[in-house]
Amino acid sequence: VQLQASGGGLVQPGGSMRLSCVASGFTSDHIDIGWFRQAPGKGREAVSCISSGFGATYNANFLRGRFTISRDNAKNTVYLQMDGLEPEDTAVYYCAVVNMDFSGTYCDPTDYWGQGTLVTVSS
Questions:
Q1: For residue 103, what is the DSSP state?
Q2: Which of 88, 91, 68 is nearest to 14 (CA)?
Q3: Which residue, 26, 27, 38, 93, has most beta carbons within 10 Å?
Q4: What angle do CA 101, 102, 108 make, to 5 degrees?
Q5: Whole-angstrom Cα distance, residue 37 to residue 84?
Q6: Model confidence over 86-115: pLDDT tens digits?
Q7: Could you tell me where the beta strands, DSSP code E, fall in the chain?
């Protein structure tokens, strides 16, 4: 059972970046996956989550529509498209298997986490 996150790096304020999370080793295709982040000196917070089949998404209020989560079930991959990046978005981003409801009102991580990928927004 493995989650592999990739796509981080250095980007200028206002720029874009896409993160990928590939899931492998799971016995079921019905896995909800989310992105979390942890900025230096701060706690981990949920960013965006997506369900496996019914299309529900959860998005943190601070995103203000700047990030978009999507998935390609044929590739077992979840993407996080990040636009309008701000220095405050600098953090290590993790993907995880999550529990979420049909309406996308909550997104709680399970014990399955990827290794994290660093996103740095700086000029």
A1: T
A2: 88
A3: 93
A4: 20
A5: 17
A6: 999 999 999 999 999 888 888 999 999 999
A7: 2-6, 9-11, 17-24, 32-38, 44-50, 57-59, 67-72, 77-82, 91-100, 107-113, 117-121
pLDDT confidence band for 55 (50 / 70 / 90): confident
Distance between CA atoms of 93 and 115, rounded to whole angstroms? 9
| Amino acid at residue number 120 | T
Specify the 3-state DSSP secondary structure of 61: helix
Angle among Cα 49, 55, 59 to the nearest 5 degrees reads: 30
Q: Identify which of 4, 107, 87 has the alpha carbon closest to the alpha carbon of residue 46.
A: 107
Name residue, tokens 């943190």: 60
Provide the CA 12 distance to its chain's centre, in angstroms. Answer: 20
